[in-house]
């Protein structure tokens, strides 16, 4: 499978850890990951955005792993933030959790299902 990042020359080029588009070819499997929430396997919801963001990403990675995939397979992810004030921390933590990997992405400020959850992350991966 080949992933080819695309940033059109005649449009805004992001500098915050994502690409404007991702072309994939030669893949045989797609994985659609539901919104991953900041809830641990034991039902615990950690305090604060930093801990919740890291946990939601670990949950994304767990779903990828369960399907025999990993972070290198990510093509697109979409993050729903409960509050715009978390936007810059979200970028920083996302970049750390992805080890600098850049994919197509969207960040939306939204009401999350449970008020205790400060974000939710859905993803698409290919292999
Ligand atoms: C995609 C986007 N708005 C961000 O902050 O990474």
Automatic annotation (TrEMBL):
Source species of the chain: Tistlia consotensis USBA 355
Gene3D superfamilies to which the protein is assigned, alphabetical: RutC-like (3.30.1330.40)
Superkingdom of the source species: Bacteria
A Pfam short name: Ribonuc_L-PSP
Q: Which GO terms describe its molecular function?
A: deaminase activity
Question: This protein is called what?
Answer: Enamine deaminase RidA, house cleaning of reactive enamine intermediates, YjgF/YER057c/UK114 family
What cellular component GO annotations does this protein have? cytosol
Q: What is the lineage of its organism?
A: Bacteria, Pseudomonadati, Pseudomonadota, Alphaproteobacteria, Rhodospirillales
